[in-house]
Amino acid sequence: MKPHRRKKLGIILFIAAGLSIAIGFTAFALKQNINMFYTPTQVAEGEVGAGQHFRIGGMVKMGTVVGDQGSLKVNFVTTDFVSDVPIQYEGILPDLFREGQGIVAEGEMDTAGVFQASRVLAKHDENFMSPEVKAALDASGASAENHSPMANNK
Amino acid sequence: MWLWFSKLGSPKWFYELSGRWLPWLTAAMIIFMTIGLVWGLLFLPPDYQQGFTSRILIVHVAVAGTSLAFFPLMFVAGTITLVWKMKLADMVAKNAAILGAWFSFVTLATGSLWGSVMWGTWWEWTDSRLVSMLFQLFLLIGVISLRSALEDSETAAKACALLSIVGCINVVIIKYSVEWWNTLHQASSPISTDSSSPNGPEFWIATLIMIVAVYLFLSVSLILATRNEILERERRSQWVRDLVLKS
Question: What is the pLDDT of residues B175-227, one digit of tens each?
């Protein structure tokens, strides 16, 4: 390789490496701002200020969904298996919403410690299963919901 | 080694070689595309929760995965343009940007379609995977606009090469966004041959076939576009004149 070409290649690699490091540090510094939601544990530890509008992400705890007769009001508890946060919501839920499913809710904490959600989104995990496999797994006692359902939440 | 490298930079040599490869690549593409689409869209079992909506992902995952190949490709082409000043590298880079923008658009469109059904929203500004993918589309549109904005083709090639090299970092952000941050978007589905794995093999085999098909589609389209570019830019050269006279 000719010297002037080697020099140019060096400059390009230097720019690419420098920029990667810069963006890496920026992304790390902005971690909480880039995160889409807080986990119930983060909320319990008081990382969210009072009266703040934010999103919370977790699993719908089994056996906690209580629908109101005659209205669209629904109450449930979201959990990350460490802490729980009760959620109240009025509106149409996505089709995927069910117990044991990951969800992201947007809203505010009220004074009673109940999260008043204005929006609830369903989160799908990275696993896909045909109904037959699901039935076979259920029969053998290994429920799909136990397969790291919120695997990418840290 | 360097002789081979400089030969690769000759548009005439590339035109002849790609002409010989093109029928094979096209045939392979048609075979994989047919198997992948027919199986994936007509015969794949429904997911137990998503129903038949999961079939959208066969296309979405393949196109999304392939769309991440454009910036690394443009990084290599850009480096060759800046360091060795090969005209062919710039011709590839120019068409890769246009194709890449379309791939990114299809990724966003199919993803939105699936999200509107499964998540209950078709777009979330707070999801880093979604936004970084949109950023890739904007970056590619930026590269295309930059080229058309600069009149001198050599300056345009250099500017686009530099932007491609810088923009390549976004690919890493897209790839790891679902692991580094909390997102609505799910993580990559693992490939597993374990029979007790929740991911049925039919899902990932069908997806893998589609990924191969889409990569072949990318190769065929890029080669065709580059061949056109070669003929246009080399129209005054003797070998192109001979070619036209022969046909």
Answer: 988 888 888 898 887 766 665 556 667 788 888 999 999 999 999 999 999 99
Based on the fold, state whether residues A29 and A41 are members of the same structural domain. no
Q: CB of A111 within 8 Å of any CB in chain B?
A: no
Q: Does this model's pTM top 0.95?
A: no
Q: Is the pLDDT of residue A99 over 50?
A: yes
Give the residue numbers spanning the domain of A9: 3-33
pLDDT at A28: 79
Decide if A94 touches B, using CB distance below 8 A: yes
Interface contact flag, A31 B180, Cβ < 8 Å: yes
Residue A58 lies in a domain: yes
Contact by Cβ (8 Å): A85, A115 = yes
Residues A75 and A10 both lie in one domain: no
> Within an 8 Å CB–CB cutoff, is residue A55 touching chain B?
yes
Q: Which residues contact B52 (CB under 8 A, 6 or more apart)?
A: B46
Which chain A residues are Cβ-neighbours of B188 within 8 angstroms?
A: 126
Q: At what angle do helices B70-84 and B87-118 cross, to 10 degrees?
A: 160
Q: How many domains does chain A have?
A: 2
Looking at the DSSP bridge assignments, the partners of residue A78 are A60, A85
Reported confidence tier of residue B94, pLDDT bands at 50, 70, 90? very high
Whether residue A131 is contained in a domain is answered as yes
Task: State whether A122 and A75 are in the same domain.
Answer: yes
Contact yes or no for B119 and A121 at CB 8 A? yes
Within a domain: residue A134? yes
